Amino acid sequence: MNRPAAAVAAGEDVGLIDRFLEMLAAEAGVAKNTIAAYGADLRAASALLEGHLGNATADELVRLGEAWMPLAASSAARKSSVLRRFFAFLVDDGLRADDPSPALPRPQAVRPLPKTLDHTDVDALFDELQRRHDAVPLPQTLRLIAIVELLYGSGLRATELVSLPRNVLGRDEPFLILRGKGGKERLVPISDRARAAVRDWMAHVPSHAAYLFPSGKAHISRIRLYQLIKGLAADAGMDPTRISPHVLRHAFATHLLEGGADLRALQTLLGHADIATTQIYTHVDSRRLVELVNARHPLVDLTVPSA
């Protein structure tokens, strides 16, 4: 098999992969977890090609794609994307003269609709929180109320929520500035209800605690957060498998969109880098969309010409 002329010699994959990952690390906004995932995909591809990924031919990449056929379409698409970016880096840095990545497969991954909750489900959760509060307003109940208000009321990610600092509402402003995925900052509005719930809970947070939801010297874990939410759902008469902190974030987005929120505004609230990610929430009730067109379109008030 004839290989293209390139500055890459066989067996240099380890060094090339390391250089590529170093480049990613130097780029603002590339998370450590993303870099680690890219490295794992590249090393696996290199192993399949016996250490010749850096100077792979188009035929070898076709063979690589065939090896991915048993994988889910989303996994194969991710691997192809990583390799395309890797070969573009090699060409840009003069490490090879050609880019064989067009030979990689482009599987069409069908993105599943996010799990969400309807308004009845949300009402059931808050009814259970109110029942607990009315019985005995224990600190753990006040904590859970604050957690649910922030997850459903502001669409926070689980990691963002558990790592909130204790003084997050120090100036009592109606918004937070969060550092989300990739280190990107975004402004998150906080409702009056959520601010009141946080204030109630803060009365029980030690003044020396670094986090709003402390646990020992750190904050509660994501696993503990999941357990709290699922326990609340079970007590509210819901199937715990239907709910998680991320499902509450999905419900926040879906219900805002159903209420007429602009997609671009929703993108900002959720902290999505690409609006294509936000567009998945357009699975709103088709009847509401029809009613919206019938009620709001400028043609509604025009008389239909008679035959």
Core attributes:
single chain; mainly alpha; hpI Integrase, Chain A; 307 residues; two-stranded antiparallel sheet; 4 strands; disordered N terminus; 13 helices; DNA polymerase, domain 1; 5% strand; two-stranded antiparallel ribbon; 2 domains
Description of the structure:
The structure is a single chain. The chain is mostly helical. The protein has two domains: 13-103, DNA polymerase, domain 1 (Orthogonal Bundle); 119-286, hpI Integrase, Chain A (Orthogonal Bundle), CATH 1.10.443.10. The protein is built from 13 helices and four strands. It has helices at residues 13-26, 32-48, 58-67, 73-92, 119-135, 139-154, 158-162, 192-202, 222-235, 245-258, 263-270, 275-278, 286-296; strands at residues 175-179, 185-189, 214-215, 218-219. The strands form two sheets. Strands 1-2 form a two-stranded antiparallel ribbon. Strands 3-4 form a two-stranded antiparallel ribbon. Helix 1 (13-26) packs antiparallel against helix 2 (32-48) and helix 6 (139-154) runs antiparallel to helix 8. The model is unreliable at 1-10 (pLDDT under 50).
